Amino acid sequence: MIKEQEEKRADSSETRDGTVKLRNPHIELFDQDILYHIALGSKSHDLVEMFGDVKFVCMGGTPKRMETSAHYIMEEIGYKIPTGTTLMDISQHSYRYSIYKVGPVISVSHGIGSSSIGVLLHEMIKLMYHAKAEDPIFFRIGTCGGLGLEPGTVVISDDAMNGLGNHYYSLPILGKVLKRPVKLDKKLVRELKALVAQDDPYDTTTGTTMCAEDFYEGQGRIDGAFCDYTEVEKQEYLKSLVTQGVKNIEMESVPFSALTHQAGIKAAIVCVTILNRLKGDQIAVPKEVITQYQQRLQILATRYIKKYLQTKDSSCLLKGSFAVESP
User: Could you provide one GO biological process annotation from this protein's UniProt record (predicted)?
Assistant: First the structure.
């Protein structure tokens, strides 16, 4: 089944013209495609006008984090919004996710866990399709638990696996389990790693990310409401992950990497560790310190965005005023 999914994706990608292609023939039969969870529609909104210039979709967990990210990106790329206007949550009436747009960059919250990001990915991929956006790049930026890494370490995922060690996204559909392969763009991983500065006051590494279905038991924590294993068993499990090249644990990498790959979209995952799971389970780092850690993700993603815009004819990509300073 995985091989069949891979062949279907590859065959479709060969004929791509830069715009996102859907693998759902039913969409074109609808009078309108309602993107319910982001409060947009293919007829109720001019999606080409609103999002046709999008080149980057940055996803993170919480609405506030992605609003902050949007403001940071706006400042770094020198994007100027018209006088008398301000950034607004485009999907504010959905009450589910928050979307902010800064020129060719979307900053959107995805919630927590596979189910939440899965819903958003379906609708963001369809949004890019209806908007006729060309070759958009998706980033997931978020926090994670590290394995043998000091808090504040940035991890660029070069692979992902679920809690059983499988490198695919399994989903029960019509009574059968469909398995979609997990793939991340290796070239994009190398390009991001190349943007790490020698004077960055923190470490940046690459490795496999484990995607858990749960925050507590699914990640081997012993501080949940239930726990049927010992500290020794937990440590043995975590150390076995390290031997498999796993650098961090979070809850969204498998569906993110599988669904973007299925859609033929280049994608990358960049996380920052907020604790070393080999030393404990509870997050005791002050909130202001975690906020500082999260800025490291924004810095790396924005370095890539700025480099991209500096090598393209940015005047045709953006609405509003725009300037990118030379590094």
Answer: nucleotide catabolic process
Q: Which residues are annotated as a binding site for substrate?
A: 219, 221
Q: Is the pTM of the predicted complex or chain greater than 0.70?
A: yes
Picking from 88, 85, 93, 86, the residue whose alpha carbon sits closest to that of residue 41 is: 93
What number does CATH give the domain 2-316? 3.40.50.1580
> Where do the structural domains in the chain lie, given as residue ranges?
2-316
Mean pLDDT of 206-215: 98
Q: Note the pLDDT tens digit of each residue in 143-167.
A: 999 999 999 999 999 999 999 999 9
CA 273, CA 150: separation in Å to the nearest integer? Answer: 7
- Binding-site entries for phosphate: 96, 140-143
Cα–Cα separations (whole angstroms), residue 225 to 221, 250, 282: 10, 19, 13
